[in-house]
UniProtKB/TrEMBL annotation:
Keywords: Electron transport, Heme, Iron, Metal-binding, Periplasm, Signal, Transferase, Transport. Its EC number is 2.8.5.2. This is L-cysteine S-thiosulfotransferase subunit SoxA. It catalyses: L-cysteinyl-[SoxY protein] + thiosulfate + 2 Fe(III)-[cytochrome c] = S-sulfosulfanyl-L-cysteinyl-[SoxY protein] + 2 Fe(II)-[cytochrome c] + 2 H(+); S-sulfanyl-L-cysteinyl-[SoxY protein] + thiosulfate + 2 Fe(III)-[cytochrome c] = S-(2-sulfodisulfanyl)-L-cysteinyl-[SoxY protein] + 2 Fe(II)-[cytochrome c] + 2 H(+). Belongs to the SoxA family. GO terms for cellular component: cytochrome complex; periplasmic space. The lineage of its organism: Bacteria, Pseudomonadati, Pseudomonadota, Gammaproteobacteria, Chromatiales. It is found in: Periplasm. Residues 64-157 form the Cytochrome c domain.
Length: 280
């Protein structure tokens, strides 16, 4: 009965998400709307970030990414405008809010990073070892520029990852198991920090997965991390979480990493994405 209730709740959230799809909003407007809807120490913990969001440095990274996206590159001298991120070749509006998802041409559930790698290799002809593909982190990497641009086209769109294919459901369910599984020398799970309101790491208020307005900000990556002075991706954040739990590091593009991102995103279903975000 509990499983049926969860499935019905996800279905209802999905319908709400579909109704909201197609409405781009500036990241600061999305965040302010969430703050207006709920009292949250997590959403309001940094006045400085709120002041800076209108001039978020990640916007410059996104602009560089737009140039790269449209530029003919690689051995095949083609642009990424033929890459299908789930809504058809070159269609980016709202696409990121519906990732991870199953792709027929690969037979896999893919997140943004793995789909981007696939298109850079198969369409543009890059080798997986080429720096354009292999370098995944930092403002100067092609990956962060491209990911930030692609994701920015979903700001304000409701998270709505499809759950139509059996592998999409399997990935999401595996991610849920991982979220609650305690392991490592500290015996931590993701839920240790993110299942109750009011928890902190030092001065930082942590988001509660069970508060949708908080969780949508928590999973809104790429984001400019002020403490790093860099734009970071979802895969980078996931790796950082596992490091903080003192567990084995995740491998970007692995089934485990995508399963966790599938669960993260599904848990934010129906809430508007803040892209790119700014975080402490």
């Amino acid at each position: 009965m509990e499983l049926i209730a969860k499935q019905e709740a996800r279905k209802a959230s999905g319908e709400a998400a579909k109704a909201a799809v197609g409405t781009y909003q500036e990241p600061l407007d999305v965040l302010q709307g969430l703050i207006d809807r709920t009292e949250s120490g997590y959403l309001t913990q940094s006045d400085q970030n709120l002041m800076m969001m209108a001039d978020n440095p990640a916007q410059w990274t996104a602009m560089d990414g737009e140039t790269l996206f449209e530029e003919a590159r690689g051995p095949n001298n083609v642009s990424l405008e033929e890459c299908d991120f789930g809504k058809g070749p070159g269609v980016l509006e709202g696409a990121y809010a519906e990732l991870p998802r199953y792709f027929e041409d690969t037979g896999k559930v893919m997140d943004l990073e793995t789909r981007l790698v696939h298109c850079m290799v198969t369409l543009q002809g890059f080798s997986p070892d080429d720096p354009e593909v292999a370098k995944r982190h930092g403002n100067g990497s092609d990956h962060m520029k491209l990911q930030t641009y692609i994701a920015s086209k979903s700001s304000g769109f409701a998270w709505n990852p499809p759950m139509d294919h059996p592998l999409e459901k399997a990935m999401r369910d595996a991610g849920e198991v991982m979220f609650y599984r305690r392991a490592g020398k500290a015996d931590f799970a993701c839920s240790t920090c993110h299942s109750e309101t009011g928890k902190r790491i030092r001065a930082s208020v942590l988001p509660n997965k069970n508060v949708p307005e908080e969780w949508t900000k928590a999973v809104s990556w790429p984001a400019f991390r002020v403490g790093h002075d860099q734009v970071r991706s979802s895969q980078h954040r996931l790796r950082g979480c596992y490091w903080q739990m003192r567990q084995a590091g995740t491998v970007a593009g692995s089934d485990g990493s995508i399963a966790m991102l599938s669960y993260w995103t599904d848990a934010a279903r129906g809430q508007p994405a803040i892209l790119p975000d700014m975080k402490r």
